[in-house]
């Protein structure tokens, strides 16, 4: 079993920045991709960003390209999401997830384990 714990969420004004972290523990795959998704009230959970094990592949949703950056530290089993130029529409619960894929998948169905989420609120 894999445990994922997100941190770094909070309240920020529009234009501000936040850095999310997600630490994986337990019996992870030998190599695994990690991704971030988000879910706003009344909406479906949507893809935000993903990164492959060796960092050769990254994927971003169009809505966050140029503002968000995903990175990872494999020695710490941790993935990060640097979020800059935040907008009120970025307000959501952000979830990290682990996939056995060798790339940086965007589909929810490709992820096997999920964290509990961290709230990000951007005020206007």
How does this model look, in words?
- With 124 residues, this protein is mainly beta.
- 0% of the residues lie in helices and 51% in strands.
- The protein is built from no helices and 11 strands.
- Strands 2, 4, 5, 6, 9, 10 and 11 form a 7-stranded mixed beta sheet that branches. A 4-stranded antiparallel beta sheet has the order 1-3-8-7, with no helix packed on it.
- It is globular and about 40 Å long.
- The mean pLDDT is 96.
Identify the notable features of this structure and list them briefly:
four-stranded antiparallel sheet, 124 residues, single chain, globular, mainly beta, seven-stranded mixed sheet
- Overall helicity: under 10%
Query: Care to count the β-strands?
Result: 11
Q: Count every helix, treating DSSP H or I runs of 4 or more residues as helices.
A: 0
- Largest sheet data: 7 strands, mixed
Unreliable sequence segments: none
Outline: globular
Measured distance between first and last alpha carbons:
40 Å
Beta fraction of the residues? over 45%
Computed CA radius of gyration, to the nearest angstrom: 13 Å
- The whole-number mean of residue pLDDT values reads 96
Q: What order do the SSEs take from the amino end to the carboxyl end, as H and E?
A: EEEEEEEEEEE
Which structural class do the helices and strands define?
mainly beta
Protein topology:
Elements: E1 2-7, E2 10-13, E3 18-26, E4 33-39, E5 46-51, E6 58-60, E7 68-73, E8 78-83, E9 92-99, E10 113-114, E11 118-123
Parallel strand pairs: 2-11
Antiparallel strand pairs: 1-3, 3-8, 4-5, 4-9, 5-6, 7-8, 9-10, 9-11
